[in-house]
Amino acid sequence: MYNEENYLQLSGIQHFAFCRRQWALIHIEQQWEENFRTADGRIMHEKAHDSGFHEKRGDVVISRAMQISSAELGVSGECDVVEFHRSKDGVSLFGLEGTYNVVPVEYKRGQPKVDDCDRLQLCVQALCLEEMLCCDIPQAFLYYGETHRRIAVELDAELRTRAVEMLKEMHKLYERQHTPKVKRTKSCNACSLKDICLPVLNKERSAAAYISETLNEDS
């Protein structure tokens, strides 16, 4: 079990799955640079994150910007949307009559990705909800802004294991305050941190070391 002061940001697992160095630059070195993709995604999430908003549609209760966490995984964050579907096989929820199945929905800009970054982030959200609400969540959904469609994500054992192992690796790197070396790929060109990471020039040093060395040369 982790103490709250050691919790990592849940959103970081998407960065970590995309690029371990990008995650470390953002979450360890506290560096960030926005581009069109990140700005568009931020605006989309702001629309979804109407904190405290609850809506009932028939047998479905919708909650936005729900705060979640897991002491076992050492992570905390927000769910864009959590739907509670009334079901005789569900769990009891405070303030609601009957029992409900829990279904997290994560909003993303653009189109579905070829990698598993989004699926892994969604899986961690489900793991947090399972721990908090003592329930089982076999399936969740990703909603993409460009296609305006939901995609069902089966939260199978393989995906869950990958998510848990990634979080363990993230904790180890964070405890060491270690930024991995660059591993240049085609994805570097679309990364909002490429001018900070300097993947071409900075293959052997951390971004912090490069910046420190540059400042010393200027002085």
Tell me what you see in this structure.
With 219 residues, this protein is α/β, with parallel strands linked by helices. Helix content is 37%, strand content 26%. Strands 1, 2, 3, 4, 5, 6 and 7 form a seven-stranded mixed sheet that branches. A hairpin with a 2-residue loop joins strand 2 (54-57) and strand 3. Helix 1 (12-18) packs antiparallel against helix 4. The longest helix is centred in the C-terminal third of the chain and has 20 residues, at 157-176.
Summarize the structure.
This protein has 219 residues and is an alpha/beta fold.
Main sheet, how many strands, which sense, barrel? 7 strands, mixed
Shape: elongated
Fraction of residues in helix: 25-40%
Number of helices: 7
How far apart are the termini? 46 Å
Radius of gyration: 19 Å
Instruction: Enumerate the spans where pLDDT stays under 50 for 5 or more consecutive residues.
Output: none
Q: What is the H/E order?
A: EHHHEEEEHEEHHH
Oligomer classification: single chain
Taken as a percent bin, the fraction of beta residues is 25-35%
Number of E-type strands: 7
Would you tell me the structural class of the helices and strands? alpha/beta
Average pLDDT over all residues: 85
